[in-house]
């Protein structure tokens, strides 16, 4: 199973680039940029990654991002993640970034976007990995702040396919961002949002109805509303599920309790993703392995997670068809061998 999963072509749809900052790179950038960090070794950093909920993670995660200052830093961060993609047979990835985490510290929007997209262009050319970028609004900040961020993004519209909504879900429901999402949709950005991670199933309903999202990030608390589950299955509304993240942030007690396989078998378009792999203990292969180890599953069910991700991605119909063929060929070759 390990070999099948390792080499299975994968598509990632829920990945925060700031969440790929490995402690070693954090130290390197801290030294390069003369930023103080409250740790002495990368091991000490890893030992601090014991989270009790989403907020306990976010506090450490935003602090870690302080070492990112120059365009080269954003390039190095993104390139390191793309090398992980190559090792994990990720053929396409749709990446979130949080501009407000950086612009609030005086980093120019241009610095962030040029560093990240420089690495994405190089990965397409040298590794054959395709990608899209999605800009997230931080939901603990105001809607006015999100509107300002949307305006800053407009000159870079060609580099950003969509807008998302992340950070603290409790106390910051989708409703708070109705107008900025309307503005983003009018400007041609595809909307997605984190909903039903720590927040109630009604946040999923509201993300669909008030924000018009085309994918729900996480969405695992949909099971609290049977009618919603049925609707998600019927409409094939994608959920970008992050198994290791959900365990690390105590959304489920353990992987056996995780509902991703139950949702797959109910016909929902669920996908496997790594969220913040440097903080949650693993990239794409690790997430697939963790699910497969806890839930006995067939090879075709495992491949279905990639087929769902291709269906849920924002690539063209031609690219979807090419990637689908790649996955079905992989599955039949594996069976034949
Ligand atoms: N930002 C980074 N990871 C996140 C998550 N899992 N939920 C909400 N905001 C995030
Ligand atoms: Zn996330």
Shape: globular
Do you know the CATH topology? TIM Barrel
Query: How are helices and strands ordered from N to C?
Result: HEHHHHEHHEHEHEHEHEHHEHHHH
The computed structural class is alpha/beta
Low-confidence segments, ≥5 residues, pLDDT <50?
Answer: none
Tally of domains = 1
User: How many strand units?
Assistant: 8
Binding site for Zn(2+): 14, 16, 194, 275
Domain Adenosine deaminase: 9-329
Organism: Vibrio mangrovi
Catalytic activity: adenine + H2O + H(+) = hypoxanthine + NH4(+)
Descriptors:
single chain; binds zinc ion; TIM Barrel; alpha/beta; binds adenine; 337 residues; 17 helices; 8-stranded parallel β-sheet; globular
Note down, in words, how this protein is organized.
This protein has 337 residues and is α/β, with parallel strands linked by helices. It has one domain (2-336): Alpha-Beta Barrel (TIM Barrel). It is 52% helix and 13% strand. It has an eight-stranded parallel beta sheet. The longest helix has 20 residues, at 317-336. The chain is globular, with a radius of gyration of 19 Å. Zinc ion binds next to strand 1.
């Amino acid at each position: 199973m390990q070999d099948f999963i390792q080499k299975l072509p994968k598509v990632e749809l829920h990945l925060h680039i700031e969440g790929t900052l490995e402690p070693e790179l954090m130290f390197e950038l801290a030294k390069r940029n003369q930023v103080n960090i409250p740790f002495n070794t990368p091991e000490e950093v890893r030992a601090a990654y014991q989270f009790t909920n989403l907020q306990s993670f976010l506090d450490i995660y935003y602090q870690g991002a302080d070492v990112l200052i120059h365009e080269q830093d954003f390039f190095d961060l993104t390139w390191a993640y793309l090398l992980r993609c190559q090792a994990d047979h990720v053929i396409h990835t749709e990446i979130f970034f949080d501009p407000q985490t950086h612009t609030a510290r005086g980093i120019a929007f241009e610095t962030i976007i040029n560093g990240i997209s420089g690495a994405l262009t190089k990965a397409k050319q040298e590794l054959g990995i395709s990608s899209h970028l999605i800009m997230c609004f931080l939901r603990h900040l105001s809607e006015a702040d999100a509107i300002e961020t949307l305006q800053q993004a407009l000159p870079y519209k060609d580099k950003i396919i969509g807008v998302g909504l992340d950070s603290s879900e409790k106390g910051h429901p989708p409703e708070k961002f109705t107008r900025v999402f309307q503005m983003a949709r009018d400007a041609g950005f595809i909307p997605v949002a984190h909903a039903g991670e720590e927040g109630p199933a009604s946040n999923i309903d509201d993300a669909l109805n008030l924000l018009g999202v085309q994918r729900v990030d996480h969405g695992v608390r949909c099971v609290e509303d049977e009618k919603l589950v049925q609707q998600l299955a019927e409409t094939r509304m994608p959920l970008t599920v992050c198994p290791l993240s959900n365990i690390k942030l105590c959304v489920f007690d353990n992987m056996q309790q995780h509902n991703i396989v139950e949702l797959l078998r109910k016909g929902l378009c669920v996908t496997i993703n790594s969220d913040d792999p440097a903080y949650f203990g693993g990239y794409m292969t690790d997430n697939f392995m963790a699910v497969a180890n806890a839930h006995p599953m067939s090879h075709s069910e495992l491949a279905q997670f990639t087929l769902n991700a291709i269906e849920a991605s924002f690539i063209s119909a031609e690219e979807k068809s090419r990637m689908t063929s790649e996955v079905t060929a992989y599955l039949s070759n594996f069976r034949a061998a």
